[in-house]
């Protein structure tokens, strides 16, 4: 399809992060380090959760799903960005941009819903501990994960075809490091205000529904914790819930800035900085936050290291 002198399916040019810094290879090294730490720490979380019997609980099953999402999420964006820097290449095909756009929306949406539903798990564990095995059975856990993936997929399938059908007859240069919706819509030569309004309402709903579940759950949790007489139980509840709230605040806060705050309040450079935070840093921070503040995970890690060291000694002899 042609529109003026431009082909709708021509390649895009990602201006990226490295062109706007005086030390591109330093930034490259930092992002590569973050990517390696993110992949490694999330894989360690998944392996620990599936191999240690003490972690075979609904909360850790949901955490393993969060780690899977984080691995896929960061892998959708960072490898392409790093390879392009090494190869001195900035182009991305129309099909590649569409695929990246779809995967990003699906994974981000799934993580939004999963983080919201994880608060229900904490609510049941603290407020209804006797009914926890029933209310958070394996079937319920699988339904929670399926609902999160379904919600994310609906977001991807709804927004991607509409976004990519606009005629991009302006510059093909995307002032971003991946194919994010706001940056793409700036290239369209048609009026996208109606679609932007619809997308704004959709984003509000996607943020408000999980956030409402989180707010309601933690309100009940705080009331229950306040009434606890046992100091150890109170400390354990606060530690577990605070880890989840830190992750929620980081992810939801950055997304609200990008998709809810009017465009007039932030610049493209600020958008890129915030996007780095929730697409690159958050997948690394999630497993670190949950492992460093969780005695069960640190205990499982110590046991795993102990088994590895003992097997090495046996092999040496």
Name the shape in a single word: globular
Structural class assignment: mainly alpha
N-to-C series of helices and strands: EEEHHEHHHEHHHHH
State the low-pLDDT regions, or none. Answer: 1-5
**C-alpha end-to-end distance:** 70 Å
Strand order of the largest sheet: 4-3-5
- Overall pLDDT metric: 83
Rounded Rg: 22 Å
Quickly count the helices.
10
Strands, total number: 5
Helix content: over 70%
Largest sheet features = 3 strands, mixed
Measured by DSSP, the beta-strand proportion falls in under 5%
Question: Any chance you could write out the topology, listing elements then pairs?
Answer:
Layout: E1 2-3, E2 6-7, E3 12-14, H1 24-51, H2 58-87, E4 91-92, H3 94-127, H4 132-135, H5 138-164, E5 173-174, H6 181-185, H7 193-227, H8 231-259, H9 268-292, H10 295-316
Parallel strand pairs: 3-5
Antiparallel strand pairs: 1-2, 3-4
Characterise this structure:
A three-stranded mixed β-sheet has the order 4-3-5. Helix 2 (58-87) packs antiparallel against helix 3 and helix 3 (94-127) packs antiparallel against helix 5 (138-164). The protein is globular. The chain has helices at residues 24-51, 58-87, 94-127, 132-135, 138-164, 181-185, 193-227, 231-259, 268-292, 295-316; strands at residues 2-3, 6-7, 12-14, 91-92, 173-174. 75% of the residues lie in helices and 3% in strands. The longest helix has 35 residues, at 193-227. The protein contains ten helices and five strands. A hairpin with a 2-residue loop joins strand 1 and strand 2 (6-7). It has 317 residues and is mainly alpha-helical.
């Amino acid at each position: 399809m042609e529109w003026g002198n431009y082909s709708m399916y021509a390649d895009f040019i990602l201006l990226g992060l490295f062109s706007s810094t005086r030390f591109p290879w330093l930034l490259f090294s930092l992002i590569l380090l973050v990517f390696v730490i993110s992949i490694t720490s999330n894989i360690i979380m998944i392996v620990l959760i599936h191999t240690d019997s003490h972690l075979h609980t609904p909360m850790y099953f949901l955490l393993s799903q969060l780690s899977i999402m984080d691995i896929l999420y960061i892998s959708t964006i960072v490898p392409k960005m790093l390879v392009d820097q090494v190869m001195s290449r900035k182009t991305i095909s129309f099909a590649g941009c569409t695929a990246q756009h779809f995967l990003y929306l699906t994974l981000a949406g799934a993580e939004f819903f999963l983080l919201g539903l994880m608060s229900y798990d904490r609510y049941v564990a603290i407020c209804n501990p006797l009914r926890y095995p029933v209310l958070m059975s394996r079937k319920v856990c699988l339904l929670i994960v399926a609902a999160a993936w379904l919600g994310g997929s609906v977001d991807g399938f709804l927004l991607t075809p509409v976004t990519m059908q606009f005629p991009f007859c302006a510059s093909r240069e995307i002032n971003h490091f991946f194919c994010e919706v706001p940056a793409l819509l700036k290239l369209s030569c048609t009026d996208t205000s109606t679609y932007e309004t619809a997308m704004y309402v959709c984003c509000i709903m996607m943020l408000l529904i999980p956030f409402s579940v989180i707010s309601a759950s933690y309100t009940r949790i705080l009331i229950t914790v306040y009434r606890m007489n046992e100091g150890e139980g109170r400390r354990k509840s606060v530690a577990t819930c605070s880890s989840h709230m830190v992750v929620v605040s980081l992810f939801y806060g950055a997304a609200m800035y990008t998709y809810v705050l009017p465009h007039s309040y932030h610049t493209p450079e600020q958008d890129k900085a915030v996007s780095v935070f929730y697409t690159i840093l958050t997948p690394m921070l999630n497993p670190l936050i949950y492992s460093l503040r969780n005695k069960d995970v640190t205990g499982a890690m110590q046991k795993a290291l102990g088994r590895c060291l003992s097997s090495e000694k046996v092999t040496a002899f």
